Amino acid sequence: MKEKKRSSRCCGWLLVLIVLAGVGFAAFAIIRQKMEPEAAPVPGLPGAITKKYADALKIAMQFFEIQKSGKLDKNPIPWRGDSGLKDGSQAKLDLSKGMYDAGDHMKFGFPMAFTATVLSWAILEYGDQMKVVDQLEPAQNSLKWITDYLINAHPTDNVLYIQVGNPKVDHSCWNRPEDMKEARPLTQVNTSAPGTEVAAETAAALASASLVFKSTDSTYSSLLLKHATQLFDFADKYRESYSISIPEVQTYYNSTGYGDELLWAASWLYHATGEQSYFGYVTGKNADDFANWGSPTWFSWDNKLAGAQVLLSRVSFFGSKDVSSSNILLKYRQSAEAVICGLLPESPSATSSRTDSGLIWVSEWNALQQPVASAFLAVLYSDYMLSSRTAKISCDGHHFTPSDLREFAISQADYVLGNNPMKMSYLVGYGDKYPEYVHHRGASIPADEAPGCKDGFKWLDSDEPNPNVAMGALVGGPYLNETYVDSRNNSMQGEPSTYNSAVLVGLLSGLVTTSSVVQSFA
Ligand SMILES: *[C@@H]1O[C@H](CO)[C@@H](O)[C@H](O)[C@H]1NC(C)=O
Ligand SMILES: *[C@@H]1O[C@H](CO)[C@@H](O)[C@H](O)[C@H]1NC(C)=O
Ligand SMILES: *[C@@H]1O[C@H](CO)[C@@H](O)[C@H](O)[C@H]1NC(C)=O
Ligand SMILES: *[C@@H]1O[C@H](CO)[C@@H](O)[C@H](O)[C@H]1NC(C)=O
Mean pLDDT per 10-residue run, the chain (522 residues)? Predict the structure, then answer.
């Protein structure tokens, strides 16, 4: 009894102490909050799923299934079958996999590798969100479909096959990929005809994918990384643009320079390996040569500078102190913020490249690539800010919060999905009204027809809508005056591509739910 009483008195005091300490801590916390009135909210658990973006993501992901070449094992598209099975055979290589570029049947390595890099990035940042809506596995499978091809396209250290098919020959046919009979010549880069940008982009694709598969298939992940490091060395040592070594490539995917790809690839290799040499690469002389500080650029299959800036900002936000304090890293982050400031409509440095209703609009050809790619970067940056509790960025003295960035990203996504003067969705298969005459050979020809190269043109000329819906195709998009001509031969506005789908998948994955991103990919 006695003992009990004493102990209870003791505990009574303890309780008072605990309460006092609690009050003190609460008061301290309030003072702290007052001192930091703009402290960002702590990122919480992922919020509720936004059905609109979840539905759109599921649709967008299907376009990769439509574009697959090779032996299709689990094919969810009823009008697609095996094709391109002999691609690469003349060089004793299996280049049957990979994806057709757009409405045609070319395999263009430069944009295909970019598609893979962006898809990896989306998975690494937003894999959790993809998983919640059952899209993680399809995304990984589509990524692997490309990286399997890219590995086979790199048979020795300094040789990379960058193209299957001849675009002149390919474009003179209108047939289904399943019925292709035309020659499928191969094009390579090598030490006498180097291609720095295409080798570096392929290195970026394989390095980023090595992170995606690191925990689920470590053998494959190591193989990807081995090819990535070899390709990067090849790209860096033999510096020349493939547009100069092989002028024919200028007609379709002309490269305006390789400095951006070198920085982008080295950034991915740094994330994938943690090796200081890659950090030194992006912060040393190459930064002076290629980083183009402070000048905003459009993120695209040709120019990855803005992507590299955002990817390196990630290190500035979340990296260990010894690297994140680097002055050069800060310059990348400032350049990334210059890109973001250009996008935000209320910013003093807002770009005037916009339609009247607010869509970023830069080019008549494939108009949607810039708004969608820009919105992907904006949602990433917004989530970096949230996850690192960064309250705001400054654009010439005006402050913008993570919600402002997200709002911009949402405005572009909503435009694509139907909130536009045409009241139509530019994502095929989404909503009630979307393009029905998409410039896509496979979609335009009935699945039970097997026209040859030339007699298939009657399907291009037909007045009927496509018999097969190219689910998930993101078409080129509207004119500056926000009109759209839904006509099958209008490839400027009506041709989808795998790289359009990749940036859209990234954007939609970021919008499926509000989120905090992982601090490290590894
Ligand atoms: C190197 O690539 C060029 C351009 O594709 C090609 O013309 C040449 O034959 C290749 N060299 C070798 C040794 O295969
Ligand atoms: C390809 O890009 C280079 C570098 O920007 C440019 O000089 C060249 O004119 C372009 N070629 C074509 C066909 O547009
Ligand atoms: C919109 O722009 C396109 C391309 O410049 C033009 O062909 C078309 O006539 C314009 N439409 C209207 C309604 O102004
Ligand atoms: C389709 O467009 C191309 C390129 O503009 C043109 O050369 C071709 O004649 C057009 N074909 C038809 C059937 O209109």
Answer: 35 37 38 34 60 97 98 94 98 98 98 98 96 97 98 98 98 97 97 98 99 98 98 98 98 97 98 97 96 95 98 95 90 98 98 98 98 98 95 97 97 98 98 98 97 96 98 98 98 98 98 81 80
Q: Ligand 1 pocket, 159 CB below 6 A?
A: no
Question: 110: domain range?
Answer: 19-511
Q: What is the CATH number of the domain that holds 90?
A: 1.50.10.10
Helices 218-237 and 259-273 pack at an angle, to 10 degrees, of: 150
14: in domain: no
User: 459: CA distance to ligand 3 center in Å?
Assistant: 26
CB 295 within 8 A of CB 309: no
pTM for this structure?
0.91
C-alpha to C-alpha distances, 437 to 336, 381, 401, 489, nearest whole angstrom: 38, 36, 41, 8
State the DSSP code for 191.
S
Looking at the structure of the chain, the number of domains it has is 1
Ligand closest to 241 (CA) is: 2
**In this structure, is residue 379 part of a structural domain?**
yes
Pocket of ligand 4 contains residue 489 by CB under 6 Å: yes
- For ligand 4, what atom is nearest to the CA of residue 460? 13
